[in-house]
Write a structure and sequence with these properties.
232 residues, alpha/beta, 30% helix, four-stranded antiparallel beta sheet, 10 strands
Length: 232
């Protein structure tokens, strides 16, 4: 389980997230929606210790993130809005392999994870290509593959469909659906609810750093416009 307790984060004098509490149960898919600047990205970057709260705390599987950041990052896979923020390898294969290698897995297990993850985002056979030579959409798919290769308990994706063409969007969505059905909890940050609406167990809408609306898709659909979110 992911537990956010009264979390506040400031950038200087600006309060980006203001006293937010949120639980994500094991196997649950939660959409975090809101307009630009509502605090979505700042909130989710606390889930594996990329940011430290000014107040409050985050727990991953019952353990505060600040007590074991390594365990938090092994349990919570993160796909950034700008995929270049997360790349550590020069080639597709080396980047996707980085996480499993750092888990100390044997070579055969690493190769299996890399192959499976690249197939999921339709990049099979492109391990040796340099990431810098890829299109923006292809780089997004590499970032998703790198997170999938970790086989995390919880997967956080910040605008994961940006720059993807229709076949790639469907491939990624199919993979997310399979992960959800297998028990991986998903937190998907998005301003466009169309792709993932049918996948969601719950929707959390943010406005001005606070949770303005939360509930099942059916419960919140009629109120989304009022918090600056376009219904699907």
């Amino acid at each position: 389980m992911l537990s956010v307790r009264r979390l506040t984060h400031r950038y200087g004098d600006t309060v980006a997230v203001d006293g937010v509490s949120l639980d994500v149960a094991d196997g649950e898919c939660v959409l975090v929606a809101g307009a630009n600047g509502s605090g979505k990205t700042t909130l989710v970057r606390h889930l594996n210790g990329l940011l430290e709260p000014d107040e409050g705390e985050v727990l991953v599987n019952g353990t505060p993130v600040d007590e074991d950041v390594v365990a938090a990052r092994a349990s919570v896979g993160m796909v950034f809005q700008d995929p270049r923020d997360g790349f550590v390898g020069a080639t597709v294969g080396s980047d996707v392999a980085f996480g499993p290698e750092n888990l100390g897995l044997p070579r055969e297990a690493v190769d299996e994870r890399v192959t499976e993850a690249l197939e999921a985002v339709e990049l099979a056979g492109r391990r040796d290509e340099r990431i810098g030579d890829l299109s923006g959409g292809e780089q997004e798919r590499v970032a998703i593959a790198a997170a999938l290769a970790m086989r995390p308990d919880h997967l956080v994706l910040d605008e994961p469909f940006t720059g993807l063409d229709w076949p790639a969007r469907q491939s990624v969505l199919d993979r997310l659906r399979a992960l959800h059905e297998a028990g991986t909890s998903l937190v998907v940050v998005t301003h466009d609810l169309r792709d993932v609406w049918g996948l969601a167990d719950r929707v959390v809408a943010m406005r001005d750093g606070e949770v303005a609306l939360r509930g099942t898709p059916g419960e919140v659909r009629g109120d989304l416009t009022g918090v600056g979110v376009r219904p699907p």
